[in-house]
Design brief:
The complex is a heterodimer of chains A (365) and B (829).
Chain A lengths: L17 H17 L3 H12 L4 H8 L5 H40 L18 H15 L3 E2 L5 E3 H4 L27 E3 L4 H10 L4 E10 L11 E11 L4 H16 L5 E8 L2 E10 L19 E10 L1 H6 L8 E8 H8 L13 H5 L6
Parallel strand pairs in A: 1-4
Antiparallel strand pairs in A: 2-3, 4-5, 5-9, 6-7, 7-8, 8-9
Helix pairs in contact in A: 1-2, 1-4, 2-4, 3-4
Chain B lengths: L1 E3 H4 L11 H11 L2 E6 L9 E13 L5 E8 L10 E5 L9 E5 L4 E2 L3 E2 L3 E3 L2 E3 L2 E2 L16 E2 L11 H4 L5 E5 L10 H11 L24 E3 L7 E8 L9 H9 L7 H13 L4 E4 L7 E5 L5 E3 L5 E3 L5 E5 L2 E5 L3 E2 L12 E7 L2 H10 L5 H8 L6 H16 L2 E10 L7 E4 L2 H6 L5 H10 L3 E3 L5 E5 L10 H12 L19 H15 L3 E2 L5 E2 L1 H6 L12 E2 L10 E2 L4 H13 L5 E8 L20 H9 L6 E8 L1 E3 L8 E2 L2 H14 L5 E4 L5 E11 L2 E9 L1 H7 L6 E6 H7 L15 E10 L4 H12 L3 E10 L8 E10 L10 H17 L2 E2 L1
Parallel strand pairs in B: 14-17, 28-32
Antiparallel strand pairs in B: 1-13, 2-13, 3-4, 3-6, 4-5, 6-11, 6-12, 7-8, 9-10, 15-23, 15-24, 16-23, 17-20, 18-19, 20-21, 21-22, 25-27, 26-27, 29-31, 30-31, 32-33, 33-39, 34-35, 36-37, 37-38, 38-39, 40-42, 40-43, 41-42
Helix pairs in contact in B: 5-6, 6-9, 7-8, 11-12, 13-17, 20-21
The chains are: A alpha+beta (365), B alpha+beta (829).
Bound molecules: zinc ion.
Amino acid sequence: MSGPNTDYDPVEVTPLQAAEVERMRDEAIAAIEAAADLEQFKQARLDHAGDRSPLALANREIGALPPQARKEAGRRVGQARGAVNKALAARQAVLEVEHEERMLATETVDVTLPVDRRRTGSRHPITLQSELIADIFVAMGWEIAEGPVVEAEWLNFDALNLGPDHPARTMQDTFWTEPAENHVVLRTQTSPVQARAMLTRRPPIYVACPGRVFRTDEYDATHSPMFHQVEGLVVDEGITMAHLKGSLDHLAARLFGDGIDTRFRPSYFPFTEPSAEVDVRCFVCRGEDSDACRTCKGEGWIEWGGCGVVNPRVLIACGVDPEVYSGFAFGMGIDRSFMFRHSLGDLRPLFEGDARFSSAFGTEI
Amino acid sequence: MKAPLSWIKEYVDVPADVTTEELTRRLTLTGLKLEGIDSPGAQITGPLVIGRVLTLEPEPQKNGKTINWCTVDVGDANGTGEPQGIVCGAHNFEVGDLVVVVLPGGVLPGGFEISARKTYGHVSAGMICSARELGLGEDHDGIIVLPADAGVPGEDVRAVLGLDEEIIEFEINPDRAYALSLRGIAREVLVSVEGASGFRDPALRDTPPADDAGYPVVLEDQAGCPVFVARTVSGVDPSATTPDFIVQRITAAGMRPISLAVDVTNYVMLETGRPIHGYDLDKLQGAIVVRRAREGERLTTLDGAERVLDAEDLVVTDDSGIIGLGGVMGGETTEMSETTSRILVESAHWDPVAMFRTGKRHKITSEAGKRNERGVDPTICAAAADRVVELLTTYGGATADPGVTEVGTAPAPAPIEVAADRAARVAGIDIPEDRVVATLEAVGCTVSGVGTGTLEVLPPPWRPDLTDPQDTTEEVIRLVGYDTIPAVLPTAPAGRGLTRDQQLRRRVGRTAAAAGYVEVVTFPFVGESDLDALGLPGDDPRRTTLRLSNPLSSEAPSMTTTLLPGLLRAAARNVGHGTDSVALFEIATVTIPGSGEPAPILPVDRRPTEEEFAAVTGALPDQPLRLAVVATGEAEATGWWGTGRGVAWSDAIDVVQRVADALGLRLMTSAVAQAPWHPGRCAALELDGQVVGHAGELHPRVCDAFGLPPRSVAAEIDLDALLGAAVHLRPAPSFSGYPVAKEDVALVVTSDVPAAAVEQALREGAGDLLESVRLFDVYTGDQVAAGHKSLAYALRFRAPDRTLVEGEAAQARDAAVARAAEVTGAAQR
Ligand SMILES: [Zn+2]
């Protein structure tokens, strides 16, 4: 084993001469910077920073120097290699960005191509309209009551003050089921749900009843043997017609827009007395300059439904003490409300099952 | 009810500044709703004037007709003041007569435009009009010749002819029968229109007292016919015609003029509201007797229909037998004719309920019946009969016979006790007692008990609808004005929101929509042909339907037991519209006939007992909620991305499983042969061992029958069962953080082994370490024996608390395979 060669002159080891190291460094940097793509870059890195690159080989020579010379030589080579590595990193970053840009450019697609691979479903607008109305009532603290569409005659008529000889029975053309002596009908109104609510709940009662009803009407643009109604019933102490007006104004405003209110005209329903027809202010013209308005046909108001104070006879038949409680009830067509809310002139599309119709309304209205 | 304005104003004075629009607006606000305003001259525009015939030269024509070449003075109406030359084909006028002239520029009903035109060698500048040309009647015997004092030439003639009459149509609510008369409408004007005054009651007249000399009448059923007034007239001129004002008024009211005698009874009915019947007195035999019919008795009514009578029907009889269905329709044998010269006028009051039932039973709707069944003033029988007699003597040349028959007594209205503040409490506004009293008195009530807190209200006889406190309350509030009621939102107690079922139904709908299905609503009516088209066997329970007595279509007379017919028809319609790929769903109830017990009609004067109410609701058929889907065409579209995927039997199961999944449920499937599905491609869907629905590909014959493309798929499921089982609170899951061990196995089984059975066996055999099983391939072909299939499963194993040791997963896999072999005969490939 020999000790370090203290007399060794570093100047005599050519690769470690300062000028030579600088030249190797400059050559390396030049080659790296000249690399035009990642392929050339890899080669340049191998040539100038690899294990067999001039600077790596020079580095190995350092050990052969006398100790006093190693430090200087090591610093010189180390700085050169550091500069090369820095150039490598910088060039690599640039080339990688360039490469990525080229790659992404080649992957460009036509984003205007149609993308509708899967079917789009939707819900029926009457379902949506019913839910919208239900939500308005639920927000007021009311509950949504339901009942069967094949209903007992007593609940559809008698309990609602429509006795067997009531002329108003002929106003509603009823589907009867066989045999007639079973007294079962297709409900002509959602009112039997109100009777059921009174018979199965205790006041205070605040319920809305949306649902399907049936009349023996021939099917045309404005009549259908099946349609949808929503009725409301409130039975509580001290209920007045003012509360009825307040509730309907609220429903009108939520359904048709702020400021839309209602108007009452005296009418007749066996279930209620006093009774009123309720008109809703036209939400298109708002009753101003109505003449050209197609929605309300110049009236400024649209016929909406019927309402009134629950007839004490009905309260008695349903087990509510009319001396303690009073109530109001109202009803309107959901299909009809939908028709003028969405400018539909013919109700038949609601029941024809044409997917194009339901699809137009999506999943919320 | 249509009422000419001039007729209304005959009985009530309306301030001159109240326009028709304001009048009808007020009446609408108090309950007589305006339906429309019409005018007989509404279709006539342009100059329509009085003309005086100056010259008239008859000119025979080659065709044998003679026309008249006239010059007519039309004043300045033609702009020149010169006589107007007009050709006229009529011959019922002469020089000097006043006639009706429409000048060029005028338009007559039917869009008939008048212009100066050359005809018969003259320029005819206008037309001399007949009543028919003006839409005033069918009379075409000639032109209208006006009375000599009708006016001066050139004046507008509309007022003279009544063409400017306004006919107001009201919608009359069933409780306001009194408004089916001019008498009632005028009274409503009086109480509704500010400033209206001077009501003149057409039924208030002096009538001759009843005596014994009148035609004999016996009332055997006082409840059915409490009052019967009979008057007779003789010497009616059969050639007498109905005066113009009566023709115009009853025509305006929508009734057809027939003969003087009939027109007069109709006129008095419109005037007073009281239906009148006229008999040919010469055809009557003996005393009139009013009684109930005997079951099975027959009568041929005026309309020629032979009717078999019911024991409840009220009949008018004489010695010959039944001569009329009281209050509803007269009989043929005593009908008045064009030769009738003696008339018996019947003005009787009938029980409204009997009228309603008889009208309904015999399907007779008439103007008389409409009034009798809703309630007529029983106190004006004599007045109405006397008015008919007056008109027959005035216009028919008749003489009133001396006898006056009046049998029975008018039912008296019952007084109503009502709290003086009830109207105020109901309306929610302040209504002073004096206002309440004044309003009730204005509608004809007599009020006593003022100041005691309770009013006793005696309704007038023309208001049989007023029987309860709520009736008088409505009268007060409607006349105080519904528009005075403020809007006050009532405060409901805190509600419970939507019920769980209501929430879940929305979730089901959203899930089906999210799966690409479009919701539709169809009618629930079904017929044999629909059930045949579904291919249901004869004993299929879905063929037991609830039938309707009066279906709209005999093709679909029942309530459906399945949503599929309506849904399949809807899908076929979509395909018919050119929509090739269709996926629809419907959520609705079906009707499953129940016990067949009747739903009793309970009393209404008290709450039913729980047992009574249960008997009513328990008699109703089951009405379970269903979800049904149908799909055809492509499940995924063909596009630039490649070929799409047609719908398959699996799509029908998939959508139902998605719905079940949304409810936290998983349905088990098993093969079943069930109409309307393909016998080899139908799954029974089970929940907790109960079959709750079916899904799969439709039978080719069903597709064909409904006009659907082959391979259409469908499902129907009981939503009530799913909603009832829906998981309410789902526990939070926990996951093992230890590594997963994956093992794949391919098992060969015979073709008839269901994959579900293999999977079930794998799960049983694999033990607790098994995390999941997924079937990722099904293979049939050269690599497996005929009649066999290879099922490839990916098994994932993991322990919750540790990393599995070497071989542990493989051991579990082997156990799984062994179990599958044991249960299903599977062999590992
Ligand atoms: Zn409008």
